[in-house]
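Field log, afternoon session.

UNIT: design team B
ACTIVITY: writing a sequence onto a fixed backbone
BACKBONE:
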């Protein structure tokens, strides 16, 4: 049996969700996936433990150095740069999966320096030294060190394929989502999700404030819309266990399969602008209503998808949809300011808060009246953005192809 070491970047639940989708596909092909990771990615893996042959917790991703090669046939990393470095140091073939290939700030003239950094990490720096490499640089290095990259499609991803000569093994794939839970069912509830929340840009305290404010937003909007159906709020149990929300909001930690299953029975899904959730909603026929952003990355997601959509296709309660991305200052500080603005608008019941409640209420009324029209507009936008929903199978195909090529090469040598 093929044995693969897998991980995902601990940035909310998006990367871990994509890893889970890939591992579900690989398990169906007889591939054994062993997870190693930290923080929110580890939480996601534990909640969805049945998908993995084993789960190993590390204190930090540099702790991968304690994992022995131990017969692994390959490594698969979703957006975490430490595993490609581990794989190269241990002579294990590695495939990198990146849903934000279009997003990273790389210039062709940087490639030589980035490759020198990669050489230093391999020769003497190691995993500990990677911790001090800036985020965008580390993502380039992960691509450079991997034997193959599967980059999720996006309008800006295609042009990048020819602009970086140092990255020659990048394959574009469709949206990476688990479609195995799709099933026809009556739609009789509202599903709200918080995403993984805890990440380097959103500490626990701010995440808790976000959940409690959004709980109030959902309750007020539902009342204004006359929507009396149940509202289930799912998300990271670390946060939900501490949150206090209005009584009609049902805080319900769900594993990923249960969330996807709930999309089949939901009138709509209300969630922050996480890219993975947007793709999943479109694949499952659940119109997406956007909740307030948690960090500036969410605004980038919203804008890229909105460019592919007709006006009004993605109704939203974003706090600052026209806000600028962080400059050269401390991104954490600037992101905490986003959370503080949300809290301020809630406390003061400002005009912004009234607009947010009105937008969500209007979207809920639209869904109750004609959900098919809204979903069709969103599905068309997502297909323009990401191609389709076959990405998980395409990633699994790519891994099998990579292993076949390497096996042939080893036999020839």
């Amino acid at each position: 049996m093929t044995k693969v070491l897998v991980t995902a970047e601990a940035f909310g639940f998006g990367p871990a969700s994509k890893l889970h989708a890939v591992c579900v596909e690989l398990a169906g092909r007889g591939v054994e996936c062993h997870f190693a990771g930290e923080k929110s990615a580890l939480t996601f893996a534990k909640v969805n433990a049945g998908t993995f042959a084993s789960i190993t917790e590390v204190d930090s991703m540099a702790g991968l150095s304690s994992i022995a090669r131990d017969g692994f046939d390959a490594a698969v990393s979703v957006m975490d740069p430490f595993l490609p470095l581990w794989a190269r140091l241990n002579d294990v073939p590695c495939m990198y999966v990146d849903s934000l290939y279009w997003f990273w700030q790389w210039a062709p003239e940087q490639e030589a320096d980035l490759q020198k950094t990669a050489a230093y990490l391999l020769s003497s720096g190691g995993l500990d030294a990677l911790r001090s490499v800036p985020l965008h640089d580390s993502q380039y290095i992960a691509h450079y060190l991997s034997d193959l990259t599967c980059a999720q499609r996006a309008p800006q991803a295609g042009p990048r394929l020819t602009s970086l000569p140092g990255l020659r093994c990048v394959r574009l794939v469709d949206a990476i989502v688990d479609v195995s839970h799709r099933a026809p069912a009556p739609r009789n509830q509202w599903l709200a999700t918080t995403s993984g929340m805890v990440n380097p840009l959103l500490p626990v305290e701010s995440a808790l404030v976000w959940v409690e404010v959004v709980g109030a937003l959902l309750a007020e909007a539902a009342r204004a819309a006359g929507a009396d159906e149940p509202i289930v709020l799912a998300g990271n149990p670390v946060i939900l266990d501490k949150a206090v929300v209005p009584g009609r909001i049902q805080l319900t930690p769900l594993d990923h399969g249960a969330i996807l299953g709930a999309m089949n029975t939901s009138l709509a899904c209300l969630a922050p602008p996480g890219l993975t959730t947007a793709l999943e909603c479109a694949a499952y026929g659940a119109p997406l209503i956007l909740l307030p952003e948690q960090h500036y990355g969410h605004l980038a997601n919203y804008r890229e998808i909105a460019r592919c959509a007709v006006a009004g296709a993605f109704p939203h309660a974003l706090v600052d949809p026209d806000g600028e991305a962080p400059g050269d200052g401390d991104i954490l500080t600037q992101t905490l300011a986003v959370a503080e603005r949300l809290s301020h608008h809630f406390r003061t019941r400002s005009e912004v808060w009234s607009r947010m409640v009105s937008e969500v209420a209007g979207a809920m009324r639209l869904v109750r009246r004609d959900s098919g029209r809204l979903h069709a507009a969103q599905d068309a936008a997502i297909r323009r953005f990401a191609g389709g929903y076959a990405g998980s199978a395409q990633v699994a195909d790519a891994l099998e192809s990579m292993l076949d090529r390497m096996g042939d090469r080893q036999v020839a040598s």
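LOG NOTE: The mean pLDDT is 92.
NEXT ACTIVITY: expression trials, pending approval
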